[in-house]
Specification:
Phosphorylase Kinase, domain 1, globular, binds magnesium ion, alpha+beta, 9 strands, 5-stranded antiparallel sheet, Transferase(Phosphotransferase), domain 1, binds adenosine-5'-diphosphate, 16 helices, 4 domains
Length: about 425
């Protein structure tokens, strides 16, 4: 994009003098309904940050204004600050038309994008990420705050590939045993009690447990790359959530051990009172396996965007995308696949050695091939790669504008009652 065009979209310099005096805004890192997040540089120190720029000009007087909502977000960010897995708010600037929230920069972007690039995470990586998420959520809850919008888009990865929970736009500090009623969050991650109290009269409100449910949805999605309750008909998805109807029957689950399945089953319990607590989740056998420094180092290496594996898949996907036929590459690829097949057959612990014959008739059964197929398909077709049993990877892209939630609720209400 041309520089002037980029600058055109930047808030009026006069309206935000203080911010521009201190920071040099750069490219866009992400967008929300009324916010744009840009990388920016502290002019004095040269240090990089992320500035969330909130446009107040579209505020309507009838609803909670962006100004009020942002003030609440700032208050909560300051209240939960001081934990390694929570995003740090560095600076705030206000002008009549814009608010600037300056955060520490997470160079490795969203967990969502990382997941999309690798399709699914191994148990080891899931353990590493989920432990941090649960510890971050434990800290938030210890401050009496419920996040209400936990999802891979709101979990960032910093330079050291540690997670940072961000986007406290829906977070709420609870007073005493206060219960909440409002319908907010992202459809696929909503807890059954949030839906129930909005759809069924006289149902109790909801509380901290909604974040634990969202952790279950995240963990399921990390392990297999598709979310547990997705259905192309939103109403069916919401009903599945309310009934806690999900399964481990898709072929990806065959390679996954019992401990993570057990933890997911305990996180995705419909009754919030019977749902596992964060404390118990953190001591669940899934987390008993020690992660040694060595493990973490190699893990971090493979998590890095410039890792060999990532770039290999990207290259292949790019080739497919641009429809470039490279016979040499294709030949090398075939050799690699055959070699991998031989290695798979030799594996002592492979429960059911698969022959090349099997690979020809049902390649998706082979984990390695499945990963490659999914990785390429993901890049080429993105949102319409169909999965069995009404599940669809499209759900990963389900990031409905927050304001649409009310509409979904209104549309679906009649079908439920
Ligand atoms: P919204 O409330 O509009 O969803 P978020 O706070 O979630 O706003 O930010 C939107 C997106 O901007 C994030 O999903 C992420 O891609 C990017 N982003 C936000 N904060 C940072 C940060 N500190 N470092 C890097 N990227 C960020
Ligand atoms: Mg967000």
């Amino acid at each position: 994009m041309a520089k002037e065009e980029e600058d055109d979209k930047l808030p009026d310099k006069h309206a935000a003098k203080e911010f521009y005096a201190k920071y040099e805004p750069k490219e866009i890192l992400g967008r929300g309904i009324s916010s744009t997040v840009r990388r920016c540089i502290d002019k004095e120190t040269g240090k990089e940050y992320a500035a969330k720029i909130i446009d107040l000009s579209s505020d309507s007087p009838s609803e909670m204004t962006s100004l009020e909502a942002t003030k609440q977000e700032i208050e909560i960010l300051r209240h939960v600050v001081g934990h390694p897995y929570i995003i740090e708010l560095q600076d705030v600037f206000e002008s009549p038309t814009f608010i600037f929230l300056v955060f520490e920069l997470c160079k490795n972007g969203e967990l969502f994008d990382y997941l999309t690039s690798v399709v699914a995470l191994s148990e080891k990586k899931t353990r590493y990420i989920m432990k941090q998420i649960l510890e971050g959520v434990r800290h938030i809850h210890s401050k009496n705050v419920v996040h209400r919008d936990l999802k891979p888009e709101n979990i960032l990865l910093d330079d050291n590939l540690n997670i940072k929970i961000t986007d406290f736009g829906f977070a709420k500090q609870l007073i005493d045993a206060e219960e909440l009623q409002d319908l907010c969050g992202t459809p696929g991650y909503l807890a059954p009690e949030t839906l129930r109290c909005n759809m069924i009269e006289d149902s109790p409100g909801y509380s901290f447990e909604v974040d634990i449910w969202a952790c279950g949805v995240i963990m399921y999605t990390l392990l297999v790359g598709c979310p547990p309750f997705w259905h192309r008909k939103q109403m069916v998805m919401l009903r599945n959530i309310m009934e806690g109807k999900f399964s481990f029957s898709s072929p990806e689950w065959n390679d996954i051990s019992d401990a993570p399945k057990d933890l997911i089953t305990k996180l995705l319990v419909v009754d919030p009172k019977s749902r596992i607590s964060i404390e118990d989740a953190l001591t669940h056998p899934f987390f008993h396996t020690m992660l040694f420094d060595q493990d973490i180092a190699s893990l971090k290496q493979s998590l890095r965007r410039d890792s060999r594996r990532y770039s290999k898949i990207s290259q292949i996907a790019l080739k497919i995308h641009h429809r470039v036929f490279d016979p040499r590459q294709k030949f090398q690829w075939a050799i690699r696949v055959v070699r991998a097949m031989v290695r798979i057959q030799r594996l002592k612990y492979t429960p059911e050695p698969l022959s090349l014959e099997t690979a020809r008739f049902d390649p998706y059964r082979l984990r390695l091939l499945r990963k490659v197929v999914d990785g390429c398909a993901f890049r080429v077709y993105g949102h319409w790669v169909k999965k069995g049993e009404g599940q669809n990877r499209a759900a990963l892209f389900e990031n409905l504008p927050k304001t649409d939630l009310k509409q979904i609720y209104v549309n679906n209400l009649n079908n439920f009652t």
